[in-house]
Amino acid sequence: MGYFDYTIRHTVGKGGRGTVYLAERIRRRPDSSPIDMNAPLSPPPLCAIKRMAHRPNNHTSLTRSPCANGQLWLNEARMLKILHHPHIIRLHESFQTPRFYYLVTEYAEGVPLS
Q1: Percent of the chain with pLDDT over 90
Q2: What pLDDT does residue 74 have?
Q3: Does any domain span residue 31?
Q4: CA 3, CA 25: separation in Å to the nearest integer?
Q5: What sequence ranges are listed for the domain Protein kinase (predicted)?
Q6: In terms of Cα–Cα distance, which of 58, 46, 54, 53 is closest to 10?
Q7: Would you say the C-alpha torsion 32, 37, 41, 44 has a positive or negative sign?
């Protein structure tokens, strides 16, 4: 899966390190392809996508280098992958493009934390 497997519905929130979008997964499996029973479960249709730039776009950010943002993305993906708790969102996948890092998680409805 990757960025083009999702349709962005709207922006959920914006912070110092990235933007979170509500997205809908697009099913792209051709009818003729076999179903792999050992494949990981696909994310539900609605999910949250957190997008972090390779290079932070503000000078007040604590993460000034692209390596720092990449390390934050990798650390967050690793933590979400191993943590399983009812009050922690689950990670469905993570990937990157030439300009951005992405985390695809379950979408938790509720009130903003701000």
Answers
A1: 22
A2: 87
A3: no
A4: 10
A5: 6-114
A6: 46
A7: positive
State the Cα–Cα distance between residues 15 and 92, nearest whole angstrom: 21
Burial (CB count <10 Å: 0-12, 13-18, 19+), residue 99: exposed
In whole angstroms, give the CA distance from residue 52 to residue 8.
15
* SS percent in the chain: helix, strand, coil, step 5: 20, 30, 50
Report yes or no on 13 lying in a domain: yes
Domain of 82, in residue numbers = 3-24+44-106
Give me the average pLDDT of each 10-residue run along the chain (114 residues): 76 88 76 51 77 66 60 88 89 88 89 66
Residue 17 lies in a domain: yes
CATH of residue 75's domain is 3.30.200.20
